[in-house]
Amino acid sequence: MAVSLGLLAVGLVVLVFAGDLLVRVAARIAFRFGLAPVVVGATVVAFGTSMPEMTVSVVGALQGAPGVAAGNVIGSNITNILLVLGLAAAIAPMSVNQRMPKVDIPILLAVTAWALFMFADGEVSRLEGVASLAFVALFTVAQLLWFASESGLEVPDAPGAARPRGRLSMDAMALIGAVVAMAVGSALFVTGAVDLAERAGISEFAIGATVVAIGTSLPEIITSAIAAWKREHDIAVGNVIGSNVFNVLAVLGAAGLARPILVDRSLFAFELPVMALSALFLFPLIWRRFRIGRTEGALLVAGWIAFTAITLVRGGGAA
Q1: Does residue 112 contact residue 275 with C-beta atoms inside 8 Å?
Q2: Which CATH number fits domain 2-318: 1.10.340.30, 1.20.1420.30, 1.10.645.10, 1.50.10.20?
Q3: Which positions ≥6 away from 188 have C-beta within 8 Å?
Q4: What's the predicted TM-score (pTM) here?
Q5: What confidence tens digit (pLDDT) does each residue in 119-157 have?
């Protein structure tokens, strides 16, 4: 037990530091190529904060732990909306750009529907993985073209995205180092999580949807909390929506391409409906006032606590 907790802790620390470095370096590289701050926040930062989920899920799939891979994506998407967005709103009430319910949330709902379609037959195949990666490429290009067409748009800088200094080669080396560190941290984290699940009598999926999900969502938590504190509300909300899109398309796609992921159909009884409903709930939450207050934030966090408790109980009974 002590060894498992040690691996989990060390892997988590490595993931957090490597994820932070990845976001900062990726943002600097993006700025070097003249991308606007809002593009960096919606694409580079969102993808960067999803890298822990990416490496953990791919390593989990390769190590024959599909429950961790699937649970990590489902749990992370639920955690991002209920916990990350809830904490950000609790820190500071957030006003939301009117394009969110018109463009970004419909995209998230479409991607969520695609995830349910992939899970429906009990397996995320390599073909579905390839299709998901193609979709995320189209999503990224569409985002770049959308923001490029909005000339004169005033937006805040992404948190931690300092203007570039030094050589591009140094940033490239740091980027490679961050990716390697995340792969190592992910391997340690998955090994510890799977061993802990076996010792505690809890299913791989339950561990993936709770312990692993909150661990890999730490970059989103940190980024959105800083954004909310600095009143950079579009970044805070955009990071959550963008990360959830990347989780399904890039993370699940890459994991399915690495190795087909078997999915327990019992997930349709609770976890998958919660993932879909949490995404759908963003519509009335935002559309009414284009604002997320502290009360709504507290309700979101309470919902995440309930989800985590029920998932652990279900996982313990299923083991």
Answers
A1: yes
A2: 1.20.1420.30
A3: 7, 8, 10, 11, 14
A4: 0.78
A5: 999 899 999 999 999 999 998 888 777 655 444 334 444
